[in-house]
Amino acid sequence: MQIISGKELALKLKSEMAAEVATFEGRFGRLPKLVVILVGNDAGSVSYVTGKAKACDEVGILNETIRYNESITQSELLQKIAELNTILSMITPQTWVERDPTLKDLVKMRVDISYGMLGYPVLMSADIMAFNAHAVPVGSDQVAHIEITRDIARRFNNIYKTEFFIEPEPLLNDCALICGLDGQKMGKSYNNDIKISDSEEATAKKIMSAITDPSRIRRDDPGNPEHCQVAFKYWEIFTAPQQVEQVKAECCAGSRGCADCKRQLGGIINEKFAPIRERRRYYEQNPNEVKEIIAQGSARARAKASETLAQVREIMGVYK
User: pTM for the complete prediction?
Assistant: First the structure.
């Protein structure tokens, strides 16, 4: 392995990789003075390392195409959100976070709540407030999280006599809550969720376990869709109103058995997921494209978060 540094590296970069360096500097700023280049044994495999040799961030250049480690942009973004989280934590009363519904659920489950978990609502608020969002798309069970964000934003504005932070609104659609297969709130921690990443076979099998009308014993018993705890709710989510009415009529007449109903429902859900799963497979086969998307999004997010944090510091009069 060959190590090059200083003027020798600068001349090499300027003469051989001007376009790549311009791309790098356009995204990350000018190259630092201390730069070490490690040239691997494989032809076309080059890795640039910036910063101190023992603790450095990496930017990979492969086949004359710059590919950078998304940890650079993400770590810088996380630092800014972590700093904002610390600032907001200093003005948030403990009683506010204790009323968080997720924490209450964990208490019911007798889960030991750590200091970090207790402060999670503030961290989530920092995620939102770092971009001074006007609205946040959530499920109806998450509206309480947006409320604490609004409270924290209002408190900051009141303390520092400003109107800087926007009080975000929850953005809900017609399907603001999906119950799990067992009738409870859907969540991976409850092991009652339907994953888009599941195979068609796994999805169909899960749908067959969905709770229906407990009072219906035989296949030809008249059913009551209003008492169908899960399956009929999925019909309302995944199909058109006309089909929902047909399923309802057949269920009430006893001509639609629960097993047949769920089997058909599983096929419909798989059809809905098919184009999403196809797209997912594409990205699984093209990880570099995923990294590029993440890096570009992180760069935009980092710029906005940096702007927000700079203004927060100015409002508070810190770091002057």
Answer: 0.67
The whole-angstrom separation of Cα 81 and Cα 10 is 34
End-to-end CA distance of the chain: 45
pLDDT in tens, 36-87: 333 333 333 333 333 333 333 333 333 333 334 444 456 677 889 999 999 9
- Domain boundary assignment for the chain: 2-68, 73-176, 188-284
The tokens of 167 are what? 């009080």
CA R_g for the chain: 27
CATH number, domain 188-284, options 3.20.20.70, 3.30.1490.20, 3.40.50.2000, 1.10.240.10: 1.10.240.10
Asked whether the beta carbons of 149 and 170 are under 8 A apart, the reply is no
Q: Given 3.20.10.10, 3.40.50.620, 2.60.40.10, 3.90.550.10, which CATH number is that of 73-176? A: 3.40.50.620
170 SS3 class? strand
CA distance 240 to 252: 19
Q: What string of DSSP letters covers 40-81?
A: -SSTTEEEEEEE-SSSEEEEEEETTEEEE-HHHHHHHHHHHH
Write out residues in the chain with pLDDT < 50, as ranges.
1-7, 9-10, 28, 31-72
Per-residue confidence (pLDDT) for residue 52, from 0 to 100? 33
| Euclidean distance between CA atoms 272 and 191, whole angstroms | 22
Q: Please, which residues bridge with residue 5 across strands?
A: 36
